[in-house]
Amino acid sequence: MTIFLSGGAKNGKSSLAQDLAVRLAGDGSLYYVATMVPVDEEDRQRIRRHVADRAGLGFQTVECGRHILSALDGVDRTGTFLLDSVTALLMNEMFTDVGVDPSAGERCAAELTAFIRAVENAVIVSDAIYSDAERYDEITELYRAALARADRACAAACDTVIEMVAGQPVIYKGGLPK
Amino acid sequence: MVLIIGGAWQGKLNWARETFELTDCDVYACTGGEIDFSRCCIDHLEEFTLACVDEDLDPVSYFEERAGLWANSVLICDDVSCGVVPMSARLRRWRNETGRLCQYLAARADRVSRIFCGLEQRLK
Lengths: 178, 124
Fold this sequence. Notes:
Helix content of chain A: 25-40%
Oligomer: heterodimer
Structural class of chain A: alpha/beta
CATH class of chain A: Alpha Beta
Strand order of the largest sheet of chain B: 2-3-4-1-5-6
Distance between the termini of chain A: 11 Å
Largest interface: A-B, 26 and 25 residues
Shape of chain B: globular
Largest sheet of chain B: 6 strands, mixed
CATH architecture of chain A: 3-Layer(aba) Sandwich
CATH class of chain B: Alpha Beta
Strand content of chain B: 15-25%
Radius of gyration of chain B: 14 Å
Helix content of chain B: 25-40%
């Protein structure tokens, strides 16, 4: 089963995602696909907190900040993959050392679709950043549109689509695993 | 009347096109404080409410005065209600007026749908 999970900040996405991944994995392989490339102490703290949350749950961590299909090299594709998050992956793909890549959204959409189709079980986490009263600069708006493009591709490819609100799952498509 | 709301870039217009079999010429995309109600689908109401703020017009009164013109329309608006209170007075007023208009329209709609990643959540 493949699950796409999004919603606003601090609504319980990561903890539900972990819970779902553990349930889907059963006795099979369980991977955490870490997409965040830390740039400062705040990032490193967040990563430490998430690593502690996952301790003892049986996750093997696969570091993959770019080219998400490369995360599948040498792993057991019949296993369960928790990818957290599309937001960080797109950030790495779009804002590179050589500048802003406007095709990153389309590329992430295609690669994530292929990723979701290639594995037995996946839980894909993203962030809903689309409902504030702000007029953003061109680059930020480009990123928002690209993230939404990737999100919609994941939502179309996954069996289940969930929006997390205050720790409660709102199901738009499919169902939760038993 | 159908009201479709949701965050920016969520595929609201695409969903409306497919669900209500709309073509390009059915759709009017708001750019200012006037709406062409001869089209059956009005998109980007949040651009209309921003223009209302800039032109000091009341968006709810605008719709009230033209109640017969949109009784069978598909109306689409970005949800702009979920961020930090904007620093700019213009955008604060925009947020308030957009929320007021959406509530007014939702109360009168036969169907209210919220679109998330291209998928519908039926609110009414």
